[in-house]
Queue: 2 jobs
Job 1
Amino acid sequence: MIEFLVAPFEFGFMQRALLGGVLVAAICALVGTYVVLRGLAFVGDALAHAAFPGVVIAYMLKGNIYLGAMLFALATALGVGVVSRHGRVSHDTAIGILFAGAFALGVLLMSTIQGYTVDLFSFLFGNVLGISERELWLVAFLGGVVVLTITVLYKELLLLSFDPTVAEAMGYPVQAFNHLLLGLIAVTIVISIQAVGIILVVALLVTPSATAYLLTQRFFQMMVLGVVLAALAAVIGLYLSYYLNVASGAAIVLVSTCLFFLTLAGRRLLSPVLFRS
Amino acid sequence: MRSNDGGRAPSGYQATGPSAGSPGIWGRGRGAVTEKKGWRYCLEVRDLVAGYHGTPALEGITFAIPPGQMVGVIGPNGAGKTTLFKAILGLTPYQRGEILLHEAPALRQRAMMGYLPQLEDVNRDFPVSVADVVMMGRYPRIGWGRRPGPEDFTAVRRALERVDLLDHAQTQIGKLSGGQQQRAFLARVLAQDPHLLLLDEPVSGVDATTQHAIFALLEELRDIGKTVVVATHDLNCVIERFDQVLCLNRQLVAYGPPREVFREDILGRTYGHHLMVVRVGDRRIVVADEHRHESVKRDT
């Protein structure tokens, strides 16, 4: 049994994958708490897709793909605000227009590259097994920035998420906080691209936090529980990926999905006394 | 257009020059917010024109409220009561006018104003306890990046005691009944300990016991020097309990003590034909248009 558990991590790439996977999943769950409670899943998914052309362009120019992804995600976040303010269309329509357009641009550019498939495929679907030491440092650094921001502004972000009207009446800069939250989501997406990819990152943003939401009625507990569930999914997913030889990002996401449905079923079975009704 | 000289300062509040400016809440340490006496007016609104595009919801409103008063804001639906509150709180832009809190722009001292919206538009399933919600009222005082201290927990406890929700401190907010939730949100305003309280129909949809408890509490606050402004449809309650009444119908129709303001012509101008006052001996009964549910019928 111990042999079974230890064996995969005799390889350096698996150690890096474990560290990277757990880190990324944990940071996603931390930010995911706000995503779930404020109903920003669609926004999160859109920002991830919108980052794609940035990745492709950076790849073509042999630049930093993380920087490219970040620029496009942030530009889209700003663009959504502009379009919905001036374009007479609702917020989610504006998101739909922009993210699909940006993603199409990415696909179009990608199709012009000769022999593109392997690398860019991994950006769409992730490959945590291929995470490099340099990328690990980047994840740790940007993840640290996210954690620090949330720690310092913990109570302000809580108030803003729960009751933006009263927060504004108290004098808090609500608009700035909304942009900050979008920025945190964008950063989180960017550091998740290597691990789970653009298409699957929304799962890490919402699923572990949603599972935690089923289990607790306290904000802080929801955050901690979300992080634990996400890390658990990352570890189990990696074992599955190693022993069954399946895609790592998809395995992590599917474990997370299973945990959600198990919790949902468990809640139903184990009487409403134990959990929130 | 200041009818009935609502700005007359009551005895005890001398119009002496207050020290310049009010204590701002941002960037100051704990305890920076202190009650200062000596202001002639707590809230002054001058020539306010507010509302979204086209016809403004408020047209040239001017009034002043001395500290330690309980003021009822009445008027039909669409009279601009909520717009007035939102303009004072900086939630709605205004085209013209001036809003002063303790003789300095209200917008720069928003933490001094406690607000209870007409409808708390929050996610009732949000994972916070009643005590967590009340603690939010302390946030401006605690300051950026700091954690609540012992005095904040004491303030939360006291606020919960005053609205009789201490037993429910650890209950998730959505598990409370409607009236209890309203009291929880009021407790948040109490914990904030503002100089000016703006309550938008705090008793609509709550039971009579809660209603009575809330008004008793507001009177207590008034008696310790807070200025309490309440938008309400319950005219009879205004007659019984409020010091001043502000009749609003996009314009300021009248402002003064209820006994002076509650005349048929003034109420007629405020409500159009939707309301009348019936005299029965020395009692007055306010009868509202049933279709608009402006008020309940009750003896005074």
Job 2
Amino acid sequence: MLDTLRDRRTLISMIVVPLLLMPGLVVGMASLSLKLVQRAQQQVATIMILGAEHAPAAVAHIRQAKGFEVVPAASDYAQRISEKKLRAAVEFPTGFEQALASDQQPTVKLYHYAGEMRSQFAVRNLERLLNEYRDEVVAKRLASRQLSPDVLQPFDTAEENVAPPEKVGGSIFGGLIPYIIILLSLTGAMYPAIDLTAGEKERGTIETILASPVARSELVFGKFLTVMTASVATAILSLASLVATYMLTPKSFAQMGRGGASFQIAISGKGVAAVLLMILPVAVMFAAALLAIALLARSFKEAQSYISPLTIVVVLPAVASLLPGIELDARLAFIPILNVSLVSKEILTGTYHWNYIGLIFASSCIYAAAALFIAVRAFQRESVLFRT
Amino acid sequence: MIETQNLTKIFYDRKRGQIRAVDGVNFRCQPGRIFGLLGANGAGKTTCLRLLATILQPTEGTARVAGFDICKQPEQVRANVGFMATTTALYPRLTAREIVEYFGRLNGLDPRRLRQRIDELFTTFAIHEFADRRCDKLSTGMQQKVSVARTLIHDPPVMIFDEPTVGLDVMTARTIMDFIRSCRDRGKTVIFSTHVMVEAEKLCDTIAIIHEGKILAEGTLAELRARYARQDLEDIFVHVVEGTA
């Protein structure tokens, strides 16, 4: 174990990466996304107005708004929009003003590049301006019929969030935190597991240790414990740095939330502790499985090529739990990793379905035990230990 | 004391089929004598020694090492054996002292006895000056000494060496050979393998010639010389091996 700690690469991945990466990621991503959005909003959008002669009042309204640069009308607007040279184009049909005056419903077309952020902004702005103009027209019509504008607004709606803050916070972070912890406990275990198996073969120390009066199973256990320690340490350090980041810069978290609205995030310590407990058997399973697989390799590089695809296999169920609409039920409770992600999300929102929790914990422990068993058997097979 | 009984190890290779690396081997090594396994590469020497050290398990037959059965009591065998091979490397990131301490603890030595042993060994092999340097920073000669100390830490009655001087320069090779002799002089049972005739001639009390997994001849140098009417060990070896071709 001392040997493992000494290894600089292990130290880096175990301590430095979590400590620096976590705050870096959170703050970096939050501020970056905010900046990009702000910039896009503020940029002056180039638009084109077609048929301006048919709707002078509407066009005047648009022109007086800031943030638009109106270019002269041309017929190649579609092409320019797709090439992003033009953000949007608005077209007033012939006889627009006359149609308005006679209470008909002319259609104003808005041409845009679907999905392209700046084009969307331009369109939204245009719509807003057109809506303002529309309101003006409506107000005039009502006035001419001696009606007040309130006729159009019979009642008001008001939104009120009744879910307690920890449920709101938990729902957003409930999916994220277990996913991060699971992923970290895997990556934290990867390097030591490889080093203690294929690395030993590469260094030539495997025979040295096999010639000592230690039982094979004890040998596996020692390695397993070392890997577990590394994995747990990585997860805890990352979690701690995440918490520290949150406490120091709460705003960056709020900005990452949906819609950019800021709200209180209160995640209970009990919830986090429960989640950690649920993830523990998963970490055991990872450590044992990694050891067994890495043992098959003859060298470090070979081991890495076996293990790298595992990251994807693990990430998929964890990510799946973030998808909306995937709720915990009896079937999903047996799928490893996915079940823990889902139940952790629930726990962090304060929901404790004890029957599921028990079931999932038990099944995780069974998977962990199976993995350990396989690892011990692998260490007893000469063909695996001495692959040539 | 080492006693083998029809010791056999069969490997299964997909292309070559069954490989009898060690085939019905019977010999006996007495304490206070150096037993040499002489054979070409691939003759089965390493496999045989690994079987005795319980690193591999025999397919058929068994052996008794230091009074314990290698199949039924492998851990006790290992507690009484010191195994040293070119493949028994050191942990590069640990210091010399840490390695020897670690293996001492693995062998169940209590702290006081361990410290005593380390002191003795480090003095005997002049390891004190680089005792706290990491192993990857030591020269080959220094590493060999640490390897020897590691092998001896639990003072085992049986010593197994697999091609101990391969790749070593003359001076280091001599140190190892002196060390092997001193083990014998202290009454240990010593078995080692080599394909260097000169080494076998100089060191061994009993020589066994192994070829394709089988022991073809066994005896002291004098006995072999008389039996095959040749003086040079190399000539004897070639005659014995080719005699079965």
